[in-house]
């Protein structure tokens, strides 16, 4: 990715042992590091009960063991490890049935901050809010929420959901169905929402249900010219069930007046040059043929991508790893679209890919590299920001890549801030982070700051002999090669030997 040169890093087997990074197995390593960082706690209940039993048997005053409730246990679990998905799911089920509205909302908010792509839980959250219109208060007087408040709160949650998972057909379907089928929202309000949905993911091969919802809306509204335009737009979309829509369009055409199928201007455009009038039947044929030509071209695009689409094993987010074959398919599909040169289609595919592969650093870095080339720094920076603030915010390696990217674009202050974020919060004892930052300062010409942070790095890892030796070796090389102080470099080596 955005690698930097002339880094004073010792080329040793120890480096390979500690810092080998295989992006294809980021998730596996992430789980290992999580376990290493937060080992399973000793069951405090059993320990306390055992202590109480021992006290009682010795004749001392018995101690009553404190037994944690399931709610306390689950809350403690997610506090210790915010990425413990199973504990979150159990906690959400528990709080929704037992506790106050404020607790439920706070729990959903925390969970969806960690897992914003879980469209099903955005839907559950919204449905919970809407359901409060029927839930009585503790004193039995009235309901927790009025109907208007329940509607408003549910819509607010859905709005947050479509911002968080903008390219998810499922998320938009839940929101649109809620407005249309549950709230029976007027068409003037629903149509703009459907347009937003189409703008976000109308070209997704799985967007057929969304377009079907649009057809139903205009059919019920009895606006045939609008419905005709919807059908025409559908023929440009690479939908898996495009042929089904084509059949529906043909049935629609047979039942409509010519004025619903084409405006006067469109009809004139279809009339051959020199003709003033054309038989209505022939004009209908020309209208249908023009739409069919669009459909046929779209089907060619679908056939070219059919094998790639078949290789996508899931179009939604889940914490379980993506299959190796599916990851290979995503990369091949992205290669194909990049080579094809249709930037809009390529960006759409990247966003689709990130729904299921949001935990994979390799996809984020590939997306950044492509979008940086096509759209420049601002667009690439926005993608990196999403990675480091939302999806990979606990992973130090993505911050180091981001810092290198910022430095490559001469955003030095922002790069420094990113390094400080890692060293103060994300991974304050990660040797690789110290070395990257020290070399960043060396490249900027601030050798004194580099020396200071080398010293801090040695102090941070002093209890790990192997890593301490690794940092000390890098520091000594820096002192010898960059500063030219062989005596000071020798002193660092001697200190490392004496330390361990």
TrEMBL record:
Tell me the InterPro entries matching this sequence. HAT, HAT_PRP39_C, TPR-like_helical_dom_sf
Location in the cell: Nucleus
Tell me where the signal peptide lies. Answer: none
Q: Which GO terms describe its cellular component?
A: commitment complex; U1 snRNP; U2-type prespliceosome
Report the principal subcellular site: nucleus
Q: Which UniProt keywords apply?
A: mRNA processing, mRNA splicing, Nucleus, Repeat
Q: Which GO terms describe its molecular function?
A: pre-mRNA 5'-splice site binding
Q: Which Pfam families match?
A: HAT_PRP39_C, HAT_PRP39_N
**Family matches, as SMART domains:** HAT (SM00386)
Query: An example of a Gene Ontology BP annotation on this entry?
Result: mRNA 5'-splice site recognition
Key word DNA repair present:
no
Cross-referenced PANTHER family: PRE-MRNA PROCESSING PROTEIN PRP39-RELATED (PTHR17204), PRE-MRNA-PROCESSING FACTOR 39 (PTHR17204:SF5)
Return the similarity comment: Belongs to the PRP39 family.
Q: What is this protein called?
A: Pre-mRNA-processing factor 39
